[in-house]
Amino acid sequence: MNFKMILAIAILLIASLSLFHFTYSGSSSKSLVQSSGKHLEGIDPDEVDWRSKTVEYWESVLLPEQYDVCRLGGTERPFTGEYNKFYEKGVYICSSCGLELFSSDAKFDSGTGWPSFWEPINQNAVELKRDSTFGLIRNEVVCPRCGAHLGHVFNDGPEPTGKRYCINSVCLLFDSGK
Ligand SMILES: [Zn+2]
């Protein structure tokens, strides 16, 4: 094997390695986006009867952490959510059914570790339920279309409403509208 051949093989090897790296990092970030909300792609979510969906359906389309929080009423660990420190312009939709819930215009940094909003995108965008788990009286925030647990609302938010909708990141998907 002469020097030119060794050089050619080395160049080929480097090229294929960098191509592999590019493909690998590209597909991994893509699958992350797709794994949360893939079931909403290519359908008109307004035409689906989300309330009729079974436990098996939700288990199959949601990530385990989404299922725990959105369908079983759990809470994600603070400061871990994708949208906690995220301030791009757009609309937050329900990660279960795609309903528009909150606008980035009403998002603020509450310092609590969860995405916080001072109001929903419209009056009917969320439903409130009285929640007395852990001996605390709180108002649970629920998706009115699919029944997903989203978080809780408190009265210590900023003006103009004084409300703080404390929402789990995993219950949201961000739509930049682009
Ligand atoms: Zn929903």
SSE topology sketch:
Blueprint: H1 3-35, H2 55-61, H3 64-71, E1 91-94, E2 100-103, E3 107-108, E4 116-117, E5 127-131, E6 138-142, E7 149-154, E8 164-167, E9 172-175
Antiparallel strand pairs: 1-2, 1-9, 3-4, 4-8, 5-6, 6-7, 7-8
The structure holds zinc ion.
Q: Please identify the oligomeric state.
A: single chain
Q: What global shape is seen? A: globular
CATH class of the largest domain: Mainly Beta
Strand percentage lies at 15-25%
- The strand line-up of the biggest sheet is 3-4-8-7-6-5
Largest sheet: 6 strands, antiparallel
Q: What is the CATH architecture descriptor of the largest domain? A: Beta Complex
Radius of gyration: 21 Å
Please, how many domains? 2
Q: Which stretches are poorly predicted, pLDDT < 50 over at least 5 residues?
A: 17-34
End-to-end distance:
54 Å
CATH fold-level label of the largest domain: Metal Binding Protein, Guanine Nucleotide Exchange Factor, Chain A
**Percentage of residues in helical conformation:** 25-40%
Number of helices: 3
Strand/helix succession: HHHEEEEEEEEE
Small molecules bound in the structure, each named once: zinc ion
CATH homologous superfamily designation of the largest domain: Peptide methionine sulfoxide reductase
Number of strands: 9
Mean pLDDT: 86
Class from secondary-structure proportions: alpha+beta
